[in-house]
Amino acid sequence: MAHAGTLTLQNVSKQYEVKGAALPVLQDISLSITPGEFVSIVGASGCGKSTLLRLIIGLEEGYQGQILLDGQRIKGTSLNRGIVFQEHRLFPWLNVRDNIGLGLLNSDQTEGQKRMAVNEHIELVGLNGFETAYPHQLSGGMSQRVAIARALVNRPDILLLDEPFGALDALTRAHLQQELHRIWQQEGITMILVTHDVEEAVYLGDKVVVMEPRPGRIRQVLPVPLPHPRDRASFAFTQVKESVLREFSGHPAAELIEPPLRQEAPAASQWQFAV
To answer: Average pLDDT over the chain, rounded to whole?
Structure first.
């Protein structure tokens, strides 16, 4: 089982410079995430959700405030923080086993330990029998399982998920949500999920952080006082989902129920072996 990390954000603000003018992206974000907690972050497009994850993973710097993991300020990428993006970002010339093994590229484990870790995580995500398959032979859902295994194979303190199921069909997405929940409970890891899908946020999260845009800031943090596993059709579940949706004044509810598909392809330069 991984060591679950305590993450603390203290008055975090971030801005970019666009044509010589400051563009605020995040404003005064303060949040405490306890070890083993599952936190969902929701908000309309442009509220800085993904930027916040990039700061936590260490892909971006130049912010105001503090981001602390177990009391230590985060500086750059590290093996103790894993991330899964919406696009699986598998290398097409590598099979399942080797794609997962890339997550151990900077590890000091022996080759035997690495092989054992990869095999354990192939089993964890339910891909036994597909070890030698290549990405073009896998479905979208199976490819995301490989990406999740690659992010977890280091046994990080925290797993960050940036709309990991947003490009999948509804049935596959619901199934992988159940699988992610199983992995979270089995591994005891701290997880932070960014999503447009309020139902997904409520199904998985111990609490839901609602953000509003321009600049991105926390509007409300809502606990989800429902036992696991959760019944999406129950009245209690619907009540929590509606309470989250009510926080989005001025945003169409439909935008927050089904995540929009991203059209752009990821740039190759965004791949980071350290994560």
So the answer is: 87
pTM, to two decimals: 0.86
Residue 3: its pLDDT value, please? 59
Helix (H) or strand (E) holding 210: strand 207-212
244: its two tokens: 């989250």
Question: Which tokens hold the place of 153?
Answer: 């194979």
Check: CB of residue 92 under 8 Å from CB of residue 135. Answer: yes
Up-side HSE of residue 155: CA atoms within 13 Å toward CB?
14
At 65 the three-state DSSP class reads strand
**CA 244, 159, 206, 177: dihedral to nearest 10 degrees?**
70
Pick from 199, 256, 195, 197: which is nearest to 53 by CA?
Answer: 195
Residue 18's pLDDT is: 85
Contact indicator for 266, 87 with CB cutoff of 8 Å: yes
Task: Concatenate the DSSP letters of all residues of 128-183 into one string.
Answer: TT-TT--GGGS-HHHHHHHHHHHHHTT--SEEEEESTTTTS-HHHHHHHHHHHHHH
Q: Using the predicted structure, report yes or no on whether residue 196 has a pLDDT greater than 60.
A: yes
Please tell me the total number of residues recorded for the chain in this structure.
275
Q: Which residues fall within 8 angstroms of residue 245, CB to CB, at 6 or more apart?
A: 198, 253, 256, 257
